[in-house]
Amino acid sequence: MTQEFVHVTYLAHGKPGTDWQKKANGIAVGLTVGSWTDLPEARQAAMQKHLGHVVAAEEIGTDRDGLAQARLTVAYPTINFTPDIPALLTSVFGKLSMDGQIRLVDIDLPTEFASRFPGPKYGIDGIRNALNAYDRPLLMSIFKSVIGYDTATIAEHFYQQALGGVDLVKDDEIFFDETYAPFEKRIEACRLAAERAQQETGKFTLYAANLTGPVTEIFDKARRAVDAGANALLLNVLTYGYDVLHRLAADPQITVPIMAHPALAGAMYPSAQYGVAAPVLLGKLMRIAGADFGLYPSAYGSVALERAETLKIAEALRGEQGTLHRAFPVPSAGIHPGLVPFLYEDLGNDQIINAGGGIHGHPQGSAAGGRAFVAAIDAVVNGKTLTEAASNSPELKTSLDLWGNPSGK
Amino acid sequence: MTQEFVHVTYLAHGKPGTDWQKKANGIAVGLTVGSWTDLPEARQAAMQKHLGHVVAAEEIGTDRDGLAQARLTVAYPTINFTPDIPALLTSVFGKLSMDGQIRLVDIDLPTEFASRFPGPKYGIDGIRNALNAYDRPLLMSIFKSVIGYDTATIAEHFYQQALGGVDLVKDDEIFFDETYAPFEKRIEACRLAAERAQQETGKFTLYAANLTGPVTEIFDKARRAVDAGANALLLNVLTYGYDVLHRLAADPQITVPIMAHPALAGAMYPSAQYGVAAPVLLGKLMRIAGADFGLYPSAYGSVALERAETLKIAEALRGEQGTLHRAFPVPSAGIHPGLVPFLYEDLGNDQIINAGGGIHGHPQGSAAGGRAFVAAIDAVVNGKTLTEAASNSPELKTSLDLWGNPSGK
């Protein structure tokens, strides 16, 4: 068997004069065989296949505190891991994450090892087929403020959103207490609401229901959701662990796409010295674990991420990667119709325009808010300006008047 | 039913002149009912019990970039959550973690809500009973470099460690590939090695085996471990998710204590602006979820945390908290016998002295390395200096000569 390696790149800060080659070698040996030069020769021969090595160790600058900055790339033999993210993250950034100023900035998985992860079960093509929606970005609406609401009220909210022409509606990710709106009842009620809206609009709307509860029951719950007619599931991946997403995606009975929410990601990606870069956290790892949709903060909204980072996340989700399906990037938070041209210029058709307040805050209600977005998307896809489109869409005109049209066109 | 609230404290950075009361109120409303002033009065009456509120919003200083710093404490009604950590963290620091410079620094759980979490199944008292070891810190040794080793070799390493008089031996947390040393075989072999050592030393040694593999199989695997004679389990809690620990601790068939490894914690706690403070991450949440042992970087070793933070972690693990059992604090990384007086002064008897290189690196081998620690612990408990103790323990003398005796006594 040829050896395969996972290449992991770190950004490290340290005292001026740090021997980065030595530092990287300490990582490569310490996180694989533990020690090397102390081993007898016969033992070294047996352990060679488990030994990590340094690919690159390059000083790249100095920070404002005078600390030297370096990029270190270490190769870890895949033979040391089982193909799951707890094994991968614990090995390459478990203890190491606590060892001084060090940040995980990239992971490069070799083809054979990556193919042992499920990846998205449906991905962009599968979801487009399910919705019969091609050659344009999809539109998603987020339920707002449903804590304490009952099933009938939630279904009515769903109906209003679906009437506006959105392709998907997702639960609020903080919807946990299901006393008034039990999971399967909610799924059934929203499916009926989708059918009712379809009779008026001709368009079907998927519902991504928030999958919650004990991890020991979540897989059964997901299967029951499918039996109840669910057509998508939402998961708070980082609070449940990537392996929960992985096993949901790998389960042949769970025949619906899975949407990965980024909740808690901000505890890990924003620091310059520590943590895990957003394209790894919300892009690469989400995709191999099986996210069909990857949500992340857009570069334009209320909760913003740097544009370059958002483009890397999108590339990690939907770029070519072996046999893995492509996942939908879903730039989120504070999106209103005036931002659609920016999102479209960045990512083109293969993305989901995702809005909460930008739909529900529309003065004529959620259905009108949805129609405003539909008109905006139709405009950008057909090379029209929002101002042109607004002349035929009073709903869009209202949105632009309220939230602005920052592209100025 | 009287309302109970989880109090969450954040450290926020923002522009000078930020209205912190308004900011905190936005969090309290936004992460509970979504919006409030827009709601009709009848709806407000129904939603009142779900509404969060601001407990405190206090500006505390200015950072070196001229940003204002504030401590914000928000009360969340427990009625909004299910009693599990994914619900709790997603709600109070899910989306919010991505919303600017904000850090979660404390969580205060009310008694009734905390009592719905399992907490440690055995805790300090249960573990002391199992080991028949009282009135002193316990001693743990970490397997080193076992990737690629077979069961017999691992059992021999265990035997050497047990001979040195350690109370527990834990697997290396990066031990995943079990091809050469299958989980249950390894547990059986180490149990036999423990019995063999006991015949010589009169002392029993617990083995904490690393629980790995798919989350869908991990609960069965843990039960099989118990059937195979396991007497403790090690879990990489942060890469698997706290809920895995929670459900293992709540499972009546898993009749052994669980050791929580802090792998990946450094991706979250070290930044001053972002993330989650170590006493929450490695103390409070680990304990309610059911850790019997909580590992964390000590203030003295190679991978260091500030002393004040380590004391808060220990307090969170073992302080009085309703009916929850007390968990063992395990300050770790780079511990050698010369550091025992510092650890003892900080935490007294109810802790575990945990060493890897400080045991295996002993020039006379791991058994001698263990004996050096036993002598050091015996010294501090009996009010003797290490220098005095070393006069009766050549192994301790060797350790102090090699790694130093920083207390100077």
TrEMBL record, chains A, B:
<keyword id="KW-0413">Isomerase</keyword>
<protein>
    <recommendedName>
        <fullName>2,3-diketo-5-methylthiopentyl-1-phosphate enolase</fullName>
        <ecNumber>5.3.2.5</ecNumber>
    </recommendedName>
</protein>
<keyword id="KW-0479">Metal-binding</keyword>
<dbReference type="GO" id="GO:0043715">
    <property type="term" value="F:2,3-diketo-5-methylthiopentyl-1-phosphate enolase activity"/>
</dbReference>
<dbReference type="Pfam" id="PF00016">
    <property type="entry name" value="RuBisCO_large"/>
</dbReference>
<dbReference type="InterPro" id="IPR033966">
    <property type="entry name" value="RuBisCO"/>
</dbReference>
<dbReference type="InterPro" id="IPR017717">
    <property type="entry name" value="Diketo-Methiopentyl-P_enolase"/>
</dbReference>
<comment type="similarity">
    <text>Belongs to the RuBisCO large chain family.</text>
</comment>
<dbReference type="Pfam" id="PF02788">
    <property type="entry name" value="RuBisCO_large_N"/>
</dbReference>
<dbReference type="InterPro" id="IPR036376">
    <property type="entry name" value="RuBisCO_lsu_C_sf"/>
</dbReference>
<keyword id="KW-0486">Methionine biosynthesis</keyword>
<feature type="domain" description="Ribulose bisphosphate carboxylase large subunit C-terminal">
    <location>
        <begin position="123"/>
        <end position="403"/>
    </location>
</feature>
<dbReference type="InterPro" id="IPR036422">
    <property type="entry name" value="RuBisCO_lsu_N_sf"/>
</dbReference>
<dbReference type="InterPro" id="IPR000685">
    <property type="entry name" value="RuBisCO_lsu_C"/>
</dbReference>
<keyword id="KW-0028">Amino-acid biosynthesis</keyword>
<keyword id="KW-0460">Magnesium</keyword>
<feature type="domain" description="Ribulose bisphosphate carboxylase large subunit ferrodoxin-like N-terminal">
    <location>
        <begin position="8"/>
        <end position="113"/>
    </location>
</feature>
<dbReference type="InterPro" id="IPR017443">
    <property type="entry name" value="RuBisCO_lsu_fd_N"/>
</dbReference>
